[in-house]
Specification:
The complex is a heterotrimer of chains A (238), B (117) and C (110).
Chain A lengths: L2 E6 L11 E5 L6 H12 L18 E4 L2 E4 L5 H4 L4 E5 L6 E3 L2 E2 L2 H9 L22 H9 L7 H5 L1 H5 L6 H11 L7 H7 L14 H5 L6 H19 L2
Parallel strand pairs in A: 1-5
Antiparallel strand pairs in A: 1-2, 3-4, 3-5, 6-7
Chain B lengths: L2 H8 L2 H32 L1 H10 L3 H29 L6 H23 L1
Chain C lengths: L3 H28 L6 H8 L3 H30 L3 H26 L3
Helix pairs in contact in C: 1-3, 3-4
The chains are: A alpha+beta (238), B mainly alpha (117), C mainly alpha (110).
């Protein structure tokens, strides 16, 4: 194969921008390599976002042939249809330009779900022991490898239809904190995930778990939140 | 994004279970007022009710009935699947549950069909 | 567009209806043997407190369940929100209840 036929989905606000590119094929090439080649060799006006290139920072996610992926760890051979590939900005987030989306709504919801550490100790207290064998710790450990790439958020049809919905990543963070013995705000978290945009809007479609590049399982984390809030509903009557 | 790409994003068993549950629920909600109205004919217009009930002998109507029974069964089993998924920590078997729900619904609809003809 | 209370109502009415649906399916398969007639239906249900309770519970549960389900669909697929969404949900629930209650009354004690 000589060239890859790459289509970049650019917004209607740039009617004259180039959308089709021929990119030289390499033996080893990620989707991010392809986008970078275009920006460096064909069209320097192409905007996109990346930082670490090794699947740590969560900044390079894009829609690749209609599916959200971390582009730095996705080999182009895995996604080519024939010799073609279509690359677009992440779904469910406002586009700033070309392949760069505004991640603010995603991070705002992370905070709205109480996805922040709620400590009860000071630096003068002894370090609280964490037992890795504890069941709750296992639940927390299952979700803490999230890199905030927003792939699950882009994959979620419930987010598409219900803009208030907090989304899989934020709710999974809430679930890890609920199971973290160092976190002291259990009721505040349950409250935050029970509002109009909370975990109860989830229809268990499971696209989050199907597409998470780190093989995490937000679907089960959200189910955990539904269980805990249901228990508190019977205990506290709300 | 093109239409085919949208389909690709959704091509997994749990999305199909979701859409089946949603569309069957929507169809049942639309059908129910009609169902209730027909039954209340028993008081207001008894002769009309019998007239309507003889309609159910027609093959087209029978086919529609099988469809309604299927919708009801698929919505119930799909709902039980959903509640098992949410409230019982059974996540690894969610796909087989989804498949089992659909299979059982088919079974009930088929049973109804066989008895009806 | 669902908070905890609507979610719990949705799930609890569903649990309540699961055995009722099975019963309803069984009755349907039994009742259509040899065709349907008003006399046959009424013969089974008229004056029966049991069938009144069975179908009465069913109607109450389905009115709540259907209204909340429609609420989710109308918000996600039709973009309804705010007071309009609340109004349509209540209208659907009350409408289903009135029609359903009329039907149950018609085949039992009317």
């Amino acid at each position: 194969m000589q060239n890859l036929r790459v289509t970049i989905e650019r917004g209607p606000d740039q009617p004259n921008a180039q959308r089709e590119f021929d990119v030289p094929a390499q033996a080893n090439q990620t989707v991010l390599d392809v986008v970078s080649w275009i920006q460096q060799n064909a069209d320097p006006t192409l905007s996109y976002r990346f930082a670490c290139r090794v699947g740590m920072c969560g900044s390079c996610a894009m829609m690749v042939n209609g599916v959200p992926r971390w582009t730095c760890r996705t080999h182009i051979s895995k996604v080519l249809e024939g010799d073609s590939v279509t690359i677009g900005p992440l779904r469910n987030l406002p586009v700033i330009k070309d392949l760069a989306v505004d991640m603010d709504p995603f991070f705002d919801k992370w905070v709205a779900a109480e996805g922040v550490h709620h400590g009860a100790l000071t630096r003068d207290d002894p370090i609280a022991p964490v037992d890795p064998a504890e069941a709750a710790r296992g639940q927390a450990d299952a979700g803490i490898e999230c890199i905030n790439c927003s792939v699950c958020y882009a994959a979620c049809d419930t987010v598409t239809g219900n803009p208030d919905y907090l989304g899989p990543a934020a709710l999974q963070r809430a679930w890890t904190l609920l199971n973290d013995s160092k976190d002291s705000a259990r009721n505040a978290i349950l409250e935050a995930v029970s509002g109009v945009g909370g975990c109860h809007n989830c229809h268990s479609i499971g696209s989050c778990t199907a597409y998470c590049p780190n093989d995490l399982d937000p679907l089960s984390a959200i189910a955990g939140l539904k269980r805990e809030t249901a228990k508190s509903f019977f205990k506290r009557g709300r | 994004m093109t239409r085919t790409a949208d389909i690709k994003l959704r091509a997994h068993p749990l999305w199909l279970a979701y859409i089946l549950h949603r569309l069957s629920g929507l169809a049942l909600a639309v059908f129910l007022p009609f169902h209730f109205w027909v039954l209340s004919l028993a008081v207001t217009r008894p002769d009309q009710l019998d007239g309507f009930l003889t309609l159910t002998e027609a093959h087209v109507v029978k086919l529609a009935e099988v469809g309604l029974v299927f919708l009801l069964a698929v919505h119930m089993f799909g709902g039980l699947r959903l509640m098992a998924l949410e409230w019982l920590p059974w996540t690894p078997s969610q796909k087989s549950l989804a498949a089992g729900a659909t299979a059982a619904s088919f079974l009930i609809a088929c049973l109804f069909f066989l008895k009806a003809i | 567009m669902l908070n905890l209370r609507l979610y719990m109502l949705q799930r609890l009415t569903a649990l309540l209806m699961a055995p009722l649906v099975l019963g309803h399916l069984a009755v349907m398969i039994y009742a259509i043997q040899g065709g349907l007639s008003a006399a046959e239906i009424l013969g089974r249900t008229q004056g029966s407190a049991l069938w009144f309770t069975f179908y009465g519970t069913f109607v109450v549960a389905v009115s709540i369940h259907g209204a909340i389900g429609l609420r989710s669909i109308l918000h996600e697929w039709a973009g309804l929100k705010g007071a309009l969404l609340e109004a349509v949900m209540w209208l659907a629930g009350i409408g289903l209840f009135i029609l359903g209650a009329r039907a149950v009354w018609a085949v039992t004690f009317a």
